[in-house]
User: Fold this.
Amino acid sequence: MTVPLMPLLPGDPAAIDDAVRLLAARATTLEDAAARLSHVRAVLADERTAAAASADDRLAEGSGGALAAARLATGLAGVLTWFGERLRSHQAAARQAAERHADAVARVAHWAAERERAEAQRRLSPDASWQPTVHEAAREEARARDDAQRALADHHRATEEQQADARQAAAQVQALADTRVVRAWASGAPVTVAAFVASRSAGLAASSDLARLVRDGSVGSAPTEQAGRLRRLLEARSGDPVFWAAFWERATPAQLYAAADLMAPGMAIARRTPAAREEWAALLRAIGTGTASTLATLSPAERARFGRRIAEDVPAVSWTAPEVAAALFGALPLWVAPRPDPAGPAAPTPGQRAAADVATGVLTVLDDDPRPGRPPCPDLAAAALATLARDPAAALGYLAPEDPAELRRRATHWLGGPAPWPDHGEGVAAALAAAVLAGATSPSRAEQARAAQLASVATTQLPSGLLRNEPLSSATERDVARAYHPYLAGASQLGRTTDAAGWVDLAAPAAPSASGRPGTRADVPLADGLGAMPQPVQPHLDALLFREVIVGSSTTSAGAAAWLADALDHEEAVLEAIFPADGSDAPAAADIQGDADRQSVVRETLRDAGAVAGALQVASVRTAELADARDQAMIDDVATVASVPIGGVVAGAASRAVAHAATRSLGTVGDESVKLAADRVVTTAADAAKGGFLHATRAARHDVAVQEPVLRREFADPALAAAEAWSQARGSTPEQAARAWHQLRWDEQDTKDAFDRFYENGSSTSTGAGQ
Assistant:
């Protein structure tokens, strides 16, 4: 048994095995905890209260942390497993080398002694027979020394490899200590620890390359080549969450904005060249996809802070920065990818919630701009608002915060200024609709009140703000209409607040209503003398301004159709409440005692519909009135210039006066324009002398009157059908039901009176008392 002359390598593989088993057990426990927390989140997914939202944030943070801890434990177990296996191998190699070294040293000693003995014998006896023995002993001694050196080298090699493995394991463990990157690792598919470390190192290197690129500037070929390499790297790693988490550990939005023009052509070039355009789009997609994986690992507060940084870093003047900034939270330009429906029926995905958190941070910076209603970066603001609309709870939280004064400030800022929205107002309108509908459908009366106050403030701001943008898209108008869907029970105030003298001024109440929020009011009753059916907290809507909202958001056929559809939905909800399908006497609406009450409710609903339908006609009447006003102005100008009685104007005698008037009133010039203007003035003046002026206005009013019975029947027929079906469900024959509810027919006087008066008042173009 030889005794090693070299120490064995330190380390206890058995203890490492015990640690690996412990880590594996803890990883399993943590994964189970994460799954349980996710299950609780799924149970709360349909809850829309503030408490549920707060709990969801905490649960998301807890489940994400547990999953990251499980991935950390699994990663450490993997590192230790690898290191333990390598340590066993190196220790075995070192032990074998030590044993071989000891054996070789013993053989060196043996053959050295044999050689010395043989040499001593040769000196005593010159007999040549001893010579081979000396040579053999020397040869074996040399071979033993070589074996000792090789064993020593193998021992050194095992020691060095073990130390290298220890340094590599330590580096991997150090990388695993980067908790934010580990959270990103946990959010993606499992990969080896080595792959995790490689992705992290690549992300850190990319952030260093970005900083170097910004520092070097845009002059010369080297920065351009460096920018191209960086762009290709970002695109290649777009699906690597570890890479992007490490990248954002050191990179800043400001650096990315500064380098964007170098990494891909600027927008001025991208608009002209299809290849460059696609190159730019690919970069934006890579940035959006990669950063989204990082956002998924952050808490809502961290995402909001990141959003603030995105907005704060945008330079004052830049072609590309707004698009890069929007891409950071997944809002790609419309020319890169079509915008998805911001308010679909499905609950927002985790990615949409994360993007909405970032968008909230962006907007809190942009709404601090001292120019009310004019965001300093409309492209970015529009993208952030559209992103917010895809998470209704986030939209409600931002546009309708708990502080009433802050709610008014934000609503005034975004809705009250005619900002040059690049998307024609689609983003801000979608956010408004999402916020109002989220609050109105919430079981929390406090959230309902916040939504109602938002609608109340929006009514005062939209006519002179968003709705003054030209042109508005049909999507914008539809979303504005959707925002008022829960509140059409009060639409009949459009008729009740008008009289022969014009509109009655309804200032917003100074004191809060019973809901405790300014701008809200008591529930709207089903009809005079009756209570209200279950409904959200109602807003106080200034009647004149509410009409202007309808007018301004119905300039397209889609916008007008949306308002009519909302009115029909409102009617359907009321009919379902007062005429239960089973024919029962216990309707959802209280206080209804008999058929007379039901008829009163139907007539009140027709008043609501008539007021909305009438307001849709205002724009065409106004246009006609303006045309007639211009004609009257021309007649007045001609009469003044020609100094002749208006009834005596003829084409030949007034051509010079007409030319002057045409240029002044219509801006027309040239012989043909003068002739056309002269003919128009002659015809109009002759009609005026006979008392038959206002051609366009009369024609428009005629069209409004023609539409009235068509629209009345569209709303009256469903009411009659519901009433008859209810009676038949109670045992009446079709003939008996028809006789019982004949007063609800569209051509009966009671129905006509209910719809027609409010339709006529709703279409009034008067804007104040005495007009």
